[in-house]
Amino acid sequence: MTDIRSLEQTLLENLPWNRARIKFIARFLVAIYAVQTVNLSTLATAFSGSAQIESNYKRLQRFLSGFEMPYAELAGFVVRMLGVPGPYTLALDRTNWKIGVIDLNILMLSIVYRGFGVPVVWIVLPKAGNSNTTERCTVMEIFLDLFGAQNIACLLGDREFVGREWFRFLRRHRIKFQMRLHKNTLVRNGRGQAVQAWRLFGRTRMNSPLVIPEARLMWEMELYLSGCRLKNGEYLILVSAEFCEHPAEQYRERWGIETLFGALKSRGFNLEDTHLKDAERLSRLLALLALAFTWALVVGLWQANVNELKLKKHGYPPQSIFRRGLNILCRLVTNCDRSDLIVWYKVIKLLSCS
């Protein structure tokens, strides 16, 4: 069995929480790596210690319903654990699913690193459908309070994350951004005429972006546009507050938050298995998963540096960095023999920020 006390001690050294909460966090991490699902009934079976399964289940419920989660401290810990200095490329996106007729809708801001988004700020939306400007601004204001505008290299977002007031907010806080634009958005062309954005790129070759060097007037703001036609007939049109020579390459990093959602869901912790419907309880669960995800990613990065995997014929490794770290942690918490203790103490050190 894994030496869970060493995990507790490391968490105590890095999170200013009381020992009872730290003991719970340590047992949650061991359980989530073992069973890889957020279903509370299943998690309860994997909690270490002599307590009965029913007691563990009630303990999970109490934590998610009553613990005042210090999100700011957790976000700082996650960023320190990642060990990468700012400024950061950020990706903003939303994921949603249903439990019966109840919509679960999460707006997430992540730091993009090595092809993955690392969760730092999120809010659970009390509705179905897109986020609004107020909700997006709230998420960004939380990040600004925690890390400052100087730690934002660029903010990336899909077509949901555009709008006059939203762009004004970003410009007011001097946040660089690269957002995908709806093709029918009205912009001013080189002659000052209002046209749909796609018309600026109607003659581009397929998958060959045109970067317009001069700013175009849109929503009474001077913004920079680039775009091209895609193979599926759609247009990829990007808008930013400042000129960028290779906007498509920058925007491509947005995919990191999609890989994060995949890791939180079917490719990792099966978030959609949750039966939680209350927004605050779901938010606390996400905080625990943010910690579990980041540790697995850091372990995967460490292992990739120690033993790089050969690429397959399609040019990708046989498993992602996150999956590699998750597999290592799963083995350590489920089948840890004496020889594995050396590895366990190494991954514990990776968790430490001191």
Multimeric state: single chain
Q: What is the ordering of alpha helices and beta strands? A: HHHHHEEEHEHEEEEEEEHHHHH
Shape: elongated
Q: How much helical structure, as a percent, in the residues?
A: 40-55%
Topology:
Layout: H1 4-14, H2 19-35, H3 40-45, H4 53-66, H5 71-82, E1 88-99, E2 102-113, E3 116-125, H6 133-147, E4 152-157, H7 164-172, E5 177-180, E6 186-188, E7 194-196, E8 210-211, E9 216-218, E10 221-229, E11 235-240, H8 247-252, H9 255-264, H10 279-306, H11 321-334, H12 340-351
Describe this entry's structure for a reader:
The protein is α+β, with helices and mostly antiparallel strands and 354 residues long. Among the domains are: 129 residues, no CATH class; 70 residues, no CATH class. It is 44% helix and 20% strand. The strands form two sheets. Strands 1, 2, 3, 4, 5, 8, 9, 10 and 11 form a nine-stranded mixed sheet that branches. Strands 6-7 form a two-stranded antiparallel sheet. A hairpin with a 2-residue loop joins β9 and β10. The longest helix is centred in the C-terminal third of the chain and has 28 residues. The chain starts with a helix and ends with a helix.
